[in-house]
Amino acid sequence: MRRSFSALSEQSFDLLVIGGGAFGACAAWDATLRGLKVALVERTDFASGTSANSFKMVHGGIRYVQHLDIPRLRASCRERSALLRVAPHLVSPLPIVIPTYGHLRQGKAFLGTGMLLYDLLTADRNRSIRDQTRHIPPRRFLGRAEIQNLFPGIEADDLTGGAVFCDGQMYNPTRLVLAFVRSAVELGMVAANYAEAEELLRSADSIVGARVRDLETGEFTDVRARAVLNAAGPWVPWMLDQRQQLPLKQAGTYSRDACFLVQRQFPHSYALAVQGRTQDPDAVLSRAARHLFIVPWREFSLVGVWHVVWQEHPDSVSVTEAELTSFLGEINEAFPGMELTSDDVTMWNAGLVPFGENEPGAKHLSYGKRSHIIDHKREHGIDNLVSLIGVRYTMARGDAAKAVDMLCRKLEKRVPGCTTDRTPIFGGDFESFSELCSDVARCAPPGTPDRAFEPLAHNYGTQYRDIFALGGEDPELAQTVDESTTLRGEVIHAIRAEMAVHLSDIVFRRTDLGTGGHPGSVALRQVAQLAARELGWSDQTMLTELDDVERRFGVGVTLEPLSIARREPELEELA
Fold first, then answer.
1. Does one domain contain both 179 and 288?
2. In this structure, are 46 and 110 located in the same domain?
């Protein structure tokens, strides 16, 4: 993956995809795999918006039992299974405990009946997943004492035990998007980040491409394509209305979904679901309140999710200190044993997804149910343009396939059907993750810290040798950045092979450095110096890049991983 803006204008394409988040990346991979000539442009960096700020869960649809929405349940289960198959290094099963209290809606019988129905409806959930350690097991129950041992401090009045079910979890959402992009590039797709589609190009009543601006140089080029997929997520309505004068008849509303990380973990791998303060008005059969989750993720716990109707521009998404205080209060009320304070929080994530229709000021909100796939031939009389606004990360692969199906029909091009549900993505062509980790340890250059082995296996899968090759050439690159698990070779690899342009690309999206909180000023300085040497930055440019990364570690920062960690004095000295 080498960035070449000029390559966008050197040929004509079958399909131009606008937007490099999960949905755009999956669509680009699908279309390329079917044999189409594809270009992908992203205004900032790949997976820098909502995709980077997800709760990192791959939902199998158990929540839809209470809605009696079987098609949505089945679709979610299919997508979870697909990601477990094609991305075994980046998606894995996650056991979740739901405590039960007394009887009726809070008790084991009610919850167990729903889970039994779910197990029956998803009996094929492990089909073609050959590694049994990656199977989603059936539900099971725990006793009162087991729950209290697992989660000391949990509300004990009327506690009868709990039920356990499994969902999926992403190790790194940004690396997953990048793997889809890289897979497509390996088959010939042309991709460019920091490339903004300024204007759609028309010929009569058809779209024939887009005028694209290189945000690094200011240069413009016309990208010619027989069809365009606008997969810019929550930016789609704004982009169509303000720039193309194509307002959507039903633009819809959006939810700012927010969660946070804390540097505390249970001494086991179970996540915990607790009941918050709001209810689900769409549920046919429901417990007393919606669930909040406390989920183990790497060396952190991920807590969320909170929703609020967001009516401002997507670029203005933020989280305030007052909201932080409110959310901490709600989780402490639901699970008194956590006793969380703002000092425990290392990072916020917040992004926009389509929402349901709600009355102004409503407390119990109706959530979005499905992605929006818009055929602009029907909406505006303009052919060869489709917009895709994704509802949640889990559905990206499947909904992207539907959009590509629609575009192939428009192109009247005979192509194979979608195979992204069973074709391993870049780095995912292996059967056993434990064996992969053993291979990483066996192939590591002498002196490579062993704490880097498992993260390497997760982030690169079978392509970990690319990182070790750099360490073999230069022993310095086989060492970690400060006290992290990130090898210095990963920094160089991000620039040479993964289209990293800025320091923020490396810190937040190519490596693990900034995904859980501030990695420390020493680590940031080491990475900046490596990047400066590789990219030829001046001292002033390096300081500007460092300042930009530091600025993103703060409440209220827009559409990047959000942290409340404080600036450390060493960086002040460097500046």
1. no
2. no
**Domain total for the chain?**
3
Q: Position 311: which residue type?
A: Q
DSSP-assigned beta bridge partners for residue 255: 309, 353
Query: What is the rounded CA–CA span in Å between residue 498 and residue 487?
Result: 15
In a domain, 417, yes or no: no
User: 109 is in which domain, residue-wise?
Assistant: 70-171+253-355
Query: Coil, strand, or helix at residue 223?
Result: strand
Whether 16 contacts 227, CB under 8 Å: yes
436 burial type by CB count under 10 A (0-12 exposed, 13-18 middle, 19+ buried): buried
Q: Give dist(CA 323, CA 206) in Å, integer.
A: 45
CA angle, 162 as apex, 160 and 167 as ends, to 5°?
170
* Distance of alpha carbon 38 from alpha carbon 180, whole angstroms: 13
Same domain, 402 and 546: no
For residue 547, how many other CB atoms are within 10 A of its CB?
A: 14
Nearest partner of 506 among 40, 48, 7, judged by Cα: 48
Residue 388 carries which side chain, given as an amino acid letter?
Answer: L
Instruction: Verify that 96 and 243 share a domain, yes or no.
Output: no
Per-residue pLDDT of the chain (575 residues; tens, 9 = 90+): 999 999 999 999 999 999 999 999 999 999 999 999 999 999 999 999 999 998 999 999 998 998 899 999 999 999 999 999 999 999 999 999 999 999 877 889 889 999 999 999 999 999 999 899 999 999 999 999 999 999 999 999 999 999 999 999 999 999 999 999 999 999 999 999 999 999 999 999 999 999 999 999 999 999 999 999 999 999 998 888 878 888 888 777 888 999 999 999 999 999 999 988 776 666 666 666 788 999 999 999 999 999 888 888 898 888 888 999 999 999 999 998 899 999 999 998 999 988 866 655 666 556 667 889 999 999 999 999 999 999 899 999 999 999 999 999 999 888 999 999 999 999 999 999 999 999 999 999 999 999 999 999 999 999 999 999 999 889 999 999 998 999 999 999 999 999 999 999 999 999 999 999 999 999 999 999 999 999 999 999 999 999 999 988 865 444 444 444 433 333 333 33
**Residue 318 and residue 322: Cα distance in Å, rounded?**
12
Specify burial of residue 411 (Cβ count, 10 A radius: 0-12, 13-18, 19+).
Answer: middle
Residue 34: closest CA among 152, 178, 188: 188
Longest Cα separation, the chain: 71
Q: Which of 329, 355, 381 is the last residue of a domain?
A: 355
**Nearest alpha carbon to residue 15 among 239, 208, 180, 181:** 208
**Angle (CA) 21 41 172, round 5°:** 30
CB 197 within 8 A of CB 210: yes
CB of 300 closer than 8 Å to CB of 349: no
The whole model's pTM is what?
0.93
Residue 360 lies in a domain: no
Instruction: Check whether residue 452 and residue 549 sit in a common domain.
Output: yes
Q: What is the CATH number of the domain that holds 84?
A: 3.30.9.10
Tell the residue number behind the tokens 């409503």, with chain if given: 362
